[in-house]
Each structure stands twice: as C-alpha cells, then as structure tokens.
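worker-3 :: picked Thrombospondin type-1 domain-containing protein 7A
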Amino acid sequence: MACAVWETMPWTQCSVSCGIGRQSRTVQCVRGSSRTVVNEIECDRSTRPKTEKICERDNCESLLRNTIDITTSPHDQPKIRWAIGPWSDCSRTCGNGTQRRLVVCRDHIRDLSDVYCQHLEHVESVRQCMIKPCAEWTVGPWKPCSATCGIHATSERRVSCESLDSSDQPMRETDCDLSARPQSIRSCGLPACPMGEPPLGKWLTGDWDNVSYFIHNNTVQAVHIFALTIALCILFEMKRFY
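worker-3 :: tokens ->
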C-alpha cells in the first residue's frame, strides 16, 4: 500500500490591496496515484506544510496620497477643500469588511490640519463592504454501504456549501473552495462477493383472517381462524460485484 503524503493547493490572493495581509491555502493528506484524501493522522505531522503566510503590499497611505496627487487638479478648486482618494479594496474577500480612502484637508499648495476644513461637509474615510458571504463545506454522516460484499460497494454522505454568517442566504458550491471539497462518496473496502452462492430470500406475510362463523347443533359458533392469507418466500436478486 502506498504511503500517504501531504498535498498543497495554490495560495489565495493577499487579503488586502495595500499594507500587510495574509494568504492561505488548503493542505490535505492523500494516498496513491488517485490522490484519495485520507485522515491526516496517516501523514507525517512533522512535515505538514503551512496553511497561512504573511503578504505585504504597497503602503496604503502613500498609495492613496499618490492617487490624490494625480487625480486632483488645483485649477477651479476652492482654496481650502477636502482632497479625496479612491476607495481601497474591501479588507475581506468574504463577510463583513471595510474600505478606506484618504481624506486630506488642503489648499492649492499643501496639506492642512483638518481644523481648517471643519466648516465643510464631512467626508467619510471608512465604510462597510461585503463582496460575498463567507461560506464553508459542511458534511453529514456516512450512510451504510450500498452492499454487504463486492469491491464496488460505496458509501455516501451529504456535502454542502453553507454560509458562516447569520443570514439564511442560499449558497452555491462555487461560493466555497472547490479544490477543498470533501469527498461525498467513498469505497467500503469490502471483499468480493462469493461465486455460486444462492440468492437470499425473505418471507412476506399478509394480515390474519377475520373471525369466521358456522352453525353447529343449531347454535351459531364463532372461531378465530389463525391462517395466513399470504405466506410467500420471495427471492430477491442480489447485485453482485466481481
């Protein structure tokens, strides 16, 4: 039997568009050329690859400030005003996150303290955002094997993509990481069925007859007839897997 080894999936994108964020990836224990996912205890825990790492993007403030310098022209602008940069990407790829933008009080020459812009309408520099709800794979218990023998006997379980948020919003499988989808069918690992063994049967019975009446010595007599209306042994064809 082949030894189980660790298998890694590609790193996700950095969780932020500027500054310091995180990247993650899926790590699973697999066996054989079919890459069947098995329990992690079958792999060497001391060599398990990392699932998270730090990623660093451009400094957020300098990035937004440069954008303001490029997009804001001093012509036809009030002497003192709010200079506003673009919104950053949402801080999270799923669930509730935030977006930020640089808002600077300035005149046509330089940046000023916010005090000089207090008479102006307030401009938000932070807002809530959500690209999509967070979701993860959930699994149900394994069902009994489809047969009692045979190398092709399998067991199934429910695998679904469900939201981690409190909302009841229905999720599609594409909302979860398809590369990390748990198995929904597995082999039972049963031996081959014996050759030439007669098929098994099963007794099927009907209801008992009702009370019957008859006349004996000019008297009506009642007797319970305990007889089966149906007593058949039905042979069920058993699927064989060779």
